[in-house]
Design goal:
globular; alpha/beta; Xyl_isomerase-like_sf; TIM barrel protein; TIM Barrel
Length: 291
């Protein structure tokens, strides 16, 4: 049976307030556990940090994704060693390189994929600004060259990066569906054409929340048709600290991100349940057609 895991980003637990008040790591982990998240997104380049975090998560029956930011093929090797030692649902890779041409990307993609395949570890390439995948069109060219490439779809970056006009036209919807159809995980954030991160409850943001919910619904159903019977889909709530989060003149945020992260967790789970019900109720011929 396919399963759904909602994670909370530990980066998103940073407060970065003007008064300097931060939650200790132990408190952050307890908050994530007590809120009912399935696990967390964990930076794996610091072994001792990853060991401490994953030890807590494992002790409480939780799981995690291993996040990394390699600048070379070899940079992935210690991450893989850490995952072999500590475990992970998958490696989430932000390609911290900025090739000008598709040809320059090929050694990176092939090298990272070879290392992950040899280790038997799932590898997802995240869509993100100021990375190899910074531009929507460039990433679509990558998919032309690597049609089986597994992505972590953080769709917020392309809404801002391409500054889609409202309402989103069918051409841009189709481009985004190409990204989503290669998504094997999602990062949760709602953007507008000018802002990378919007407050979920502000009335003026409702249309953008609905847009992303529609894309995630399409993505969940697309994944259900592609993934194996025992596969797990992860959704990382990643509402980042300032300057991702908007602040007022006093430097304090305009909303409570921790409350919003829990709200997003509930929204994602409710959406998954609805998609799973609709997918399971579809005729066998329709399921095959989707696949």
């Amino acid at each position: 049976m396919q399963t759904f895991r909602v994670y909370q980003s530990l980066w998103a637990m940073e407060r970065r307030r003007p008064d300097g008040q931060e939650w200790p790591l132990e408190q952050k982990l307890a908050m994530i556990r007590d809120a009912g998240f399935d696990g967390a997104g964990v930076r794996f380049f610091d072994y001792q940090y990853a060991r401490a975090v994953t030890g807590f998560l494992r002790e409480h029956g939780m799981t995690w994704q291993a996040q990394c930011y390699p600048q070379s093929v070899d940079d992935l090797k210690p991450i893989i060693e850490h995952v072999q030692d500590l475990g992970a649902d998958h490696i989430n890779l932000q390609a911290d390189v900025r090739p000008y041409t598709l040809r320059e990307c090929i050694p990176y993609i092939e090298g990272w994929q070879r290392l992950a395949d040899d280790a038997g570890i799932a590898l997802h390439i995240e869509t993100h600004r100021d990375r190899m995948t910074t531009d929507l069109f460039f990433t679509l060219h990558l998919l032309d060259r690597f049609p089986a490439l597994k992505l972590t779809a953080d769709l917020s970056h392309y809404v801002v990066g391409r500054e889609f006009a409202w309402p989103i036209d069918e051409t841009n919807h189709a481009l985004m569906r190409r990204i989503i159809d290669n998504a094997w995980g999602f990062h949760g954030r709602v953007a507008s054409r000018e802002q990378i991160q919007l407050q979920l409850d502000f009335p003026q943001n409702r249309k953008w929340v609905d847009l992303f919910m529609g894309w995630w619904e399409y993505g969940f159903k697309s994944w259900m048709a592609r993934a194996g019977e025992d596969a797990a889909l992860s959704f990382l709530c990643e509402l980042g600290p300032p300057e991702y989060a908007m602040t007022g003149a006093d430097g304090y945020e305009l909303s409570d991100r921790w409350i919003e992260a829990q709200q997003m967790m509930r929204m994602a789970r409710e959406l998954w349940q609805r998609c799973a019900h609709e997918f399971s109720a579809a005729p066998v011929t329709e399921v095959r057609k989707r696949a």
